[in-house]
Amino acid sequence: MNRSTPVTGHFALIVAICLSLITATIGAGVLQDRTDVCRDLDRLLEQREYNGAVLAAKNGAVVCRSARGFADPDGKLALTTRSSFNLASVSKQFTAAAVMILVEEGKLQLDDPVADHLPELACFPGVTTRHLLNHTSGLPDIYAILERDWDKAKIAGNEQMLEIFATRRPKALFKPNAKFQYSNTGYIALASIVEKVSQLPFHRFLEERIFAPLEMKDSFAYYLTMKDYPRPDRVYGMRWDNGSWRLNDLIYCDGMRGDGNVHSSVEDLFKWDRALYGEGILKRETVRQMLTSGRLNDGTPLEYGFGFGVHENGRVVSHGGSWVGFRSLIVRYVDRGDTLIMLINGPSPKAKGMDAALKKLFFD
Known about the structure:
Layout: H1 4-22, H2 34-47, E1 52-58, E2 61-68, E3 85-86, H3 92-104, H4 114-117, H5 129-134, H6 142-149, H7 158-168, H8 184-198, H9 202-211, E4 220-221, E5 238-241, E6 244-247, E7 262-264, H10 266-275, H11 284-290, E8 309-311, E9 316-323, E10 326-333, E11 338-344, H12 354-363
Antiparallel strand pairs: 1-2, 1-11, 3-7, 4-7, 5-6, 8-9, 9-10, 10-11
Helix pairs in contact: 2-12, 3-8, 3-9
């Protein structure tokens, strides 16, 4: 299974989802009675055979939260709004925040050459931390390399990626900041930089510097290189096959950290959403920088900041994720404090277009 394929499709899906969500008028009308709209939500989830959790907020207050389905193929563990889903690429905003924490502390600079921290990447001269954050580094896709050459019986992690680049010295795809190309490789490298600078494992840095301070008790990072899953109840990725759920969960390249494999609940992601309006983790100016679109060398805007897609001149920011059986989406209408969070661990064929249906229910 080639992780680069679903990621490429995933990014196209993100764009489509975000565009459909963004078309909601910024001054959307007042919601109907909360009891009615939440009843409508539950009916919608049932009709679409939704297997996951949803949370919607207006003006900084939760309007509805709901969970439906199961965390496992056997149907033994019911999902709740505190179930911890694999966020896939929604994880990237936490990697970006970890980097910016170190930038605020003066331990890292956005324009530091990446090779200053990771000498294994010396074959990519001119690439900086900023380029990694903005997806403009030109680093090759590590998942394409692994799919072609890696022994799938072995787990691949960050250390293996760095070793491959140090020994094989593959060519860059393009010059730094000459082009935007969504890059899991770049965010894996960012997690390794965080570890190098902080002298902490990436999962511990996230726990100590983000999750614990925000009381995000359902949030953690988990990779296949870790000995044990950190929670007693596991949410598994699944797929619908001939009338029943089958496992569609982590594979050989899920030793990687930084580009995915952060786990969280809709409740915790709402805490994260609210924290980005204050200064609990990062200064307001730092958050503004994260949510500002980057620009290429020729001045072309990217519609991407640090860990977030940026739309409507920053009034709407979002990110989606798709990996094995997991689908995730967070959309933040920053100027009016509205939020939509969707987490899925078993995509049903009937759930297609769920984003548009939820937009209509909550924001039209």
